[in-house]
């Protein structure tokens, strides 16, 4: 993943008024699943390390050149979608180029007998406190690309991953844990609507706090009677990557889209979205606005007890309207 995703949660940064507008400061803030297949060949840890090192090298070159072609060579899935949108914002001079970054302390989790083959890695970034959790997937012919990643939230930690006698990890390919992204999307949408959710998650910065922050932001915008709308989360129908944890549960990495949808309720008003959307669309909207953030959540689903979200990544991917 391109270095630049901020840890924590995102807050809606808009205010609207007839003839004027402003913005608040954002709070700090990167289905189907792989099937079991005896014929799939897992990489060795040495091979995984080489893939990871090449990912860092190509990623830094792509960032330096703001190159979509290099990103496509190096990434796939949600990660590529996020970073192509990032390049668009940089070329529009609405975001700064990403500085070079280097990983350290990498730990690899390599499941066997999954198709397509994939592996996960957690690593720190030199000079920073954040830890990133990424998945690399075989896109064909042994070519691995980074597919999705999340940053461990402040005060959180990744659960212990179960290891086999040979040091391998175990992929979770069936069961209710794989649907946690859909359940989380439901939970956040209900919470942002100030309603009781049918789903339950452990309280934390990426669950209860995130939903309540958005409830306040949406209320601030709609209570003036100038705009109508809401924010909703929906799980992406893309591969879900899950590893068995030492407690018998699973660590699940999934993608969820958060959409802001607003329509003007009065004439002669305008809406200015948060700066994260600048470069993906105009800076002002007069009739309607739809903006999307793509989240990646790493959720610990224990064998007993409530799921907890321990890591996330979030970036804007689209802005449309008139």
From TrEMBL:
<feature type="region of interest" description="Disordered">
    <location>
        <begin position="19"/>
        <end position="41"/>
    </location>
</feature>
<dbReference type="Pfam" id="PF26366">
    <property type="entry name" value="DUF8094"/>
</dbReference>
<feature type="compositionally biased region" description="Low complexity">
    <location>
        <begin position="24"/>
        <end position="38"/>
    </location>
</feature>
<dbReference type="InterPro" id="IPR058407">
    <property type="entry name" value="DUF8094"/>
</dbReference>
<protein>
    <submittedName>
        <fullName>Lipoprotein</fullName>
    </submittedName>
</protein>
<keyword id="KW-0449">Lipoprotein</keyword>
<feature type="domain" description="DUF8094">
    <location>
        <begin position="42"/>
        <end position="311"/>
    </location>
</feature>
């Amino acid at each position: 993943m391109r270095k630049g995703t901020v840890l924590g949660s995102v807050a809606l940064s808009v205010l609207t008024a007839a003839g004027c507008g402003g913005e608040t400061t954002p709070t700090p803030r990167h289905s189907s699943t792989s099937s079991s297949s005896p014929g799939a060949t897992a990489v060795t840890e040495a091979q995984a390390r080489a893939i990871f090192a090449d990912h860092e090298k190509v990623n830094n070159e792509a960032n330096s050149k703001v190159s979509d072609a290099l990103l496509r060579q190096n990434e796939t899935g949600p990660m590529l979608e996020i970073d192509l949108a990032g390049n668009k914002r940089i070329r529009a001079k609405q975001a700064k180029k990403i500085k070079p970054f280097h990983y350290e302390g990498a730990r690899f989790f390599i499941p066997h007998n999954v198709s397509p083959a994939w592996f996960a890695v957690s690593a720190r970034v030199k000079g920073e406190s954040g830890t990133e959790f990424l998945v690399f997937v075989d896109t064909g012919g042994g070519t691995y690309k980074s597919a999705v990643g999340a940053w461990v939230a402040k005060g959180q930690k990744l659960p212990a991953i179960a290891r086999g006698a040979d040091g391998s990890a175990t992929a979770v390919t069936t069961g209710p844990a794989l649907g946690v992204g859909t359940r989380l999307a439901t939970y956040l949408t209900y919470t942002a609507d100030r309603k009781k959710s049918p789903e339950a998650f452990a309280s934390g910065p990426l669950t209860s706090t995130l939903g309540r922050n958005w409830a306040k932001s949406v209320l601030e915008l709609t209570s003036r009677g100038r705009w109508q709308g809401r924010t909703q989360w929906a799980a992406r129908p893309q591969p879900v990557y899950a590893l068995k944890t030492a407690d018998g549960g699973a660590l699940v990495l999934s993608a969820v889209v958060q959409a802001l949808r607003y329509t003007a309720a009065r004439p002669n008003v305008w809406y200015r979205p948060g700066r994260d959307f600048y470069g993906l669309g105009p800076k002002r909207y007069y009739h309607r606005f739809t903006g999307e953030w793509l989240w990646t959540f790493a959720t610990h689903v224990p064998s007993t007890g409530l799921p907890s979200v321990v890591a996330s990544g979030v970036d804007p991917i689209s802005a449309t309207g008139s």
